[in-house]
Give the backbone structure.
Amino acid sequence: MSEPGADLATPFRQRAERALHDDFLQQALTIATTKFIDLRRQAFRDFPEGERLRDRAREIKEATLQGLDLYVDQLVDNVERQGGHVHFAVSADEARDIVVDLGRRAGARMAVKSKSMATEEIHLNDALAAVGITPVETDLGEYIIQLAGERPSHIIAPAIHKTKGQVAALFGRELKRPVEADPEALTRVARAELRDKFLAADMGITGANFAIADTGTIVLVTNEGNGRMVTSLPRLHVAVMGVEKVIPSLTDLVVFLAILAKSATGQKLSSYTTLVRGPRRAGELEGPEEFHLVLLDNGRVRQLAGPLREALSCLRCGACLNVCPVYRQIGGHAYGYTYPGPIGILLTAMLNGPESVKDLAHASSLCGACVDACPVRIDIPRMLVELRTEVDTRHIAPWPERVIFKTFAALLRRPSLYRVAAPVTRLLQRPFATGRRVPRLPFFFGRWTATRDLPAVAPRTFAERWRDLEGGR
Amino acid sequence: MTGSAGRSRPSRVSLLITCLADMFYPEVGLAIVRLLRRLGAAVDFPPGQTCCGLPLFNSGYRAEAAAVAARTLPLFRDADHVVVPSGSCAWMVKHEYPGLVPPALREEALALAGRTYELSQFLVRVLDRAEFESTVKGTVTYHDSCHLLRGLHEAETPRTILRGLAGAEFVELTGADECCGFGGSFAVRLPEVSSAILDRKLANVEATGAHCVVACDAGCLMQMGGGLSRRGSRVRALHLAELLEGGAP
C-alpha cells in the first residue's frame, strides 16, 4: 500500500542529499538532537533505578503482547462500562472513516487535536477538512507545522527541523503580525491564538500514550497542558490509539512514566500526565458528553507473530531518532513516511510492507546507538538486518547488487579463489593508485572515493607475509 | 584446552585476521603477531580463512553469511584463543555465528564464541597486560567502534591500554561513542550521508589536537583514515596494534 502524502517522488538517496544541503535543517537538527542527547544522558545518570526499570518496562510490554487479546477485551469492557464507546479499525482508511463519521454525526465544525502520531499515520486532518471539520493542532510543534502545511519530522518534536527564526517568519506571514524570534514570545502568540479555538471547538481528538486495561483509562503525556483542554472542553472526545498501546494496570503505568519522559526530553516527568476515564458523569463539571476510543490495527496485529514483533513495544519517545547518526544528518522528512528514524523504518515496514523500505532498510550504519537509547531496548539493528534479508530473499533488491554479493560470497567460501583476489585487485587498481592510496575510482567505486581515499590493496597481504614469517623461522 | 592464561602462562593464540586487515592493513596483522609473541604467546594463523562474513550478514545475505560461518568454524577447532583485530568481526563470531550455523554446529560455534577476543580485550582481560610503550610520541585519542562498544559492551580495555601508554598522552574524543559513518556497504549505498557523519567525527578528532586517532576496527580505520588522508590532515588513523608495536617483524 502506498502512503498518501509521502514524499516519494525522488529516490531516498536524493531526498537524503537534499536534506544534507539544507543549512537551516542542519543547524536545527544539530542543536536539537545534541540537546536531547545530553538531557537524556543526564536524566538517567541521576536515576540509578533507571536501568532496572527499563528491563521491567520491557517485561511488561512482552507480557502484555502475549495476552494482548485478553487485555484489549478488558479495556473495551471497562471503557464501555464507563459510558464510552470502542471502535476497531483494521486499516488506516477504516480508522479515518470512523473518526470523520463521529465528527459528522455530532455536527462538529472544529476539532482541536493534541499531539498524536496515530492520527498522522491515518492522515486524519485532510479527511476532516474535506467534510467541513476544521482540524486545529494545539501542540506547539504541531501547530507550527500545520501553519506551514508540513508534516512532523520527529515523533515528539514535530517541528524539530525549523529554527526559531523560521518559526517567527512563519508566524509573521500566517498570523499577519510581526513576532520576535524568541521561543517565549512565539509560545505566547500561539497560546493566545489557540485559546479561542479550545473554546470554540466541538470535537477533541487525541492519541494515547497508554490505555490501562483494568481501569479503562486513557493516558496522555504532554508538556503544554493542551491535552487537558482537548479532553475536557469539547463535547465530543475521540482518542485514536494503536492496539499495542494497552497496558494491564496503573502499577505498570508508573514504571513507564518513570522512564518515558527521561528518554524523550530528559525530564523526570512530563509537565502534564492526563488520565481520562470515559465521558462526563452526572454531577461532574467538565468533560465531554461522548467519549470514543478507536483501536487501530493497521498491520500491527499481524506482527504479534511476525518478524517486527519487538517494534510493538515502542513507546514513541523518539530517543532512537536523536542518537541515530543518519537521522541527525537528514532529519525526518527525508525518510518520506509518517514515522522517521530507526524505529520509523520498522514501523513503515509494519504499516506498508517490506517493499516500502527496500532503500530505507539500508538507511542505517547498524551502529546500535538506538538500542542503547531505547527505553525498552528494542533491537532495531537486528530487525533492520532481517528486513534486508527479506528484501534479498524476495528478490526485491536490484539484481546487480544481488550478483555482486553472491559473487563475493562465493569468493569467501573458496580460499583458492580468495587468494587470487588480492593479486587481481592489485592489477586492476594500478591505474588509479598513488602509492598506498587510491584517490579516485570509476563507476560504483567512486561513491567511496568522492570524499575519501581508499587504501590500496597492500603489495603483499597478511596471508602472503605470514608464509614468509613461517618460512623464516 | 587451557583456561584464561595469566602473565606467567604463555598461551596459544590463533589469529582470525579477516578480509580488510588481510588485504589493506597487513601491517596491523604483523604488529599483532610481534606483540603477542613478545608477550610470550605462541601465534598461529590457520590457513584457509577468508572473512568473518559480516558484510554478507549485514546486507541481508544471511544464507551466504551462514555458509562462511560454517566453513570458518572448523579452521579454529583446535585454537586455545582466537584473536581478531576488529571489534566488528569479533562480534560477528561471538554474537552471530551460534545463531547462523546449522543446529549440529551450534555447540561448536558457542565454544568458539567463548574463546574469541578482540585484541584489546585479549591483552587486558586474558593476558592481563596494560602497560605498553607507544610507537607514536605525542597525544593520541580513541574512537569507539560501534560493535566493540555496543556489541561487545567494551569501552574500557582500549582506554586502559591508552591511559597507561608510555611515551604518549591520551585525550578523550568528544562524541567518541558516535559512529564514524562506515557501516560496511552503508558507506557506498548512502555515500553522502556516510561522509557527513564522517565529517562530524573528524572535526571532533581534529579538535582534540591529537597526533593520531586509534581504533580497534579495520572498518573505522578505512573510513576515518580515508577521510583524514583526503583532507590532507596531519592526524593519522591507527590500529591499536600499530601504536603498541610499529615496524616490520
